[in-house]
Design a protein that fits this description.
342 residues; alpha/beta; DHBP synthase; Rossmann fold; 2 domains; 9-stranded mixed beta sheet; 16 strands; globular; binds adenosine monophosphate; binds magnesium ion
């Protein structure tokens, strides 16, 4: 069943959600698979549908800042960030109250809170009349959905979707933990580290954002330890200046290679290319990345090379997703001997 942003459909979707159904809904970041956050049974359906590990908590979506008080304990840092960045693509982790079912927070004592700025999402939350728990609406491990088609590609017609077109950001929200004295950036996104630093100068970047967490390390955010965004084919990230990267990729390409590259490089490769935006436009790269990963995978290549952007601003969020999509397999062609085989 496909719903649209009409008064009738929003009302119907709100009622279904309130009554314990799960529905894929648009947000400015990616499509989310939503359920009434106060209904443990409904929330369990999300984990089953996504085949999501039950130790990976969900984000609770609200339609105004004061609603956070109903199920969480906002602190001073929460209000500082909320005032500046909400509604918007940011998620803040604060202590939870007892009225939230354990399923939402995977047994943790904290909850992830987000107030999306997409007008359709706000209408749906208001129509439901309850906060909505929602992770990304993809099968666990695959790239997050940025269109209704991506949701349908993963779930067929098992899950109803409200189709409001392509998501503006295309990458999941920035996640910041506000549980200790020092705020920690757990997942980079459109609200960048540079923007956060202006409000909370002591913010630190969490372990796992830029490096692999060892198997024995306990991540601050359970989601960080799970494989994510990964195409099925063997996937390698390629960093460095165009001439070095092209030399390396062409040297290592086979008959069945796909290169996900920058627009300005697309004629330089011997293998088939999918371009995902200009190197100097990280917003565009972010917006097209997951679609490019899905398209590359649909071609059933033997291997995929992906050009990686600079790591400042929104580029850090793109790079962070590429680390996970490639299983931390990124080669810097400016420093590596480019005849090396992958
Ligand atoms: P998703 O919505 O699928 O992008 O996943 C939500 C992300 O937020 C995952 O990486 C979770 O591990 C993280 N998250 C949700 N709740 C918490 C929490 N209470 N503490 C730490 N991380 C959380
Ligand atoms: Mg996800």
């Amino acid at each position: 069943m496909i719903y649209h942003d009409t008064d009738k459909d929003i009302k119907a979707v709100g009622k279904l959600l309130r009554n314990g159904e799960i529905i894929a809904i648009p947000t400015e970041t990616v499509y989310g698979l939503a359920a009434n956050a106060y209904d443990g049974n409904a929330v369990r359906k999300i984990f089953e549908a996504k085949r999501r590990p039950c130790d990976n908590p969900l984000i609770v979506h609200i339609a105004d800042i004061s609603a956070a008080n109903e199920f969480a304990e906002p602190n001073e840092m929460f209000y500082k960030l909320a005032e500046k960045f909400m509604p918007g693509p940011i998620t803040l982790i604060i202590p939870k109250k007892d009225n939230l079912p354990d399923e939402v927070c995977a047994g943790l004592l904290s909850v992830a809170v987000r107030y999306p700025d997409h007008p359709t999402t706000q209408k749906i939350i208001k129509a439901a009349g309850v906060p909505l728990a929602a992770p990304s609406a993809n099968l666990s491990g695959s790239p997050s959905p940025t269109t209704a088609k991506h949701v349908i590609d993963d779930f067929g017609d098992h899950i109803p979707v409200l189709d409001a077109g392509k998501c503006r950001c295309g990458l999941e929200s920035t996640v910041v933990s506000l549980l200790g004295g020092t705020p920690v950036l757990l997942r980079p996104g459109f609200i960048t580290n540079e923007m956060l630093k202006k409000v909370l100068p002591n913010i630190t970047i969490g372990q796992g954002v830029m490096e692999d967490l060892g198997n024995n390390e306990k991540p601050l955010s359970p989601g960080l330890k799970h494989r994510h965004y990964a195409p099925k084919a063997d996937t390698t990230g390629v960093r460095g200046r165009t001439e070095n990267a092209v030399h390396f990729i062409n040297h290592n390409s086979g008959n069945n290679t796909i290169v996900i590259c920058f627009d300005e490089e697309k004629n330089l490769y011997t293998a088939k290319t999918i371009s995902y935006g200009r190197a100097d436009n990280p917003e565009q790269l972010a917006s097209n990345l997951f679609d490019a990963l899905r398209k590359a995978d649909a071609g059933h290549p033997e291997n995929i090379f992906i050009r990686t952007p600079e790591t400042d601003g929104i580029g850090l969020a793109v790079y962070n997703r590429l680390l996970r999509a490639t299983g931390f397999h990124i080669i810097d062609t400016d420093t590596t001997h480019t005849e090396e085989s992958v």
